[in-house]
Amino acid sequence: MATVMVRDAEAADWPAWHRMWRANCAHFNASLSLAEDEELWRRIMDPNSPVGALEQGEG
Fold first, then answer.
1. Which of 20, 25, 41, 47 is spaced 20 to 30 A from 31 at the CA atom?
2. Can you tell me the distance from the alpha carbon of 23 to that of 19, in angstroms, rounded to the nearest whole number?
3. What is the Cα–Cα distance from 19 to 25, expressed in whole angstroms?
């Protein structure tokens, strides 16, 4: 059985997260600007923000 590791998102995750986010938005026919995507990422990276993200880690 494979082990799946989950961790908090890190700044270096932006390219992979952004590709996934854009695919998710396209699936739901949502259109957000790059500025909105960047603001969401800024909030995800802000430890004082209630917004967060989890990423698959190495394991």
1. 47
2. 6
3. 10
Under 8 Å CB-to-CB from 50, ≥6 apart: which residues? none
Record the pTM: 0.83
Angle, alpha carbons 23-30-35 (nearest 5°): 85
The tokens for 51 are 């917004």
pLDDT band at 3 (very low <50, low <70, confident <90, very high): confident
Q: Measured between alpha carbons, how far is 8 from 5 in angstroms, rounded to an integer?
A: 10
The average pLDDT across 32-50 equals: 96
Sign of CA dihedral 46, 41, 13, 57: positive
Fill in the DSSP letter of residue 11. G
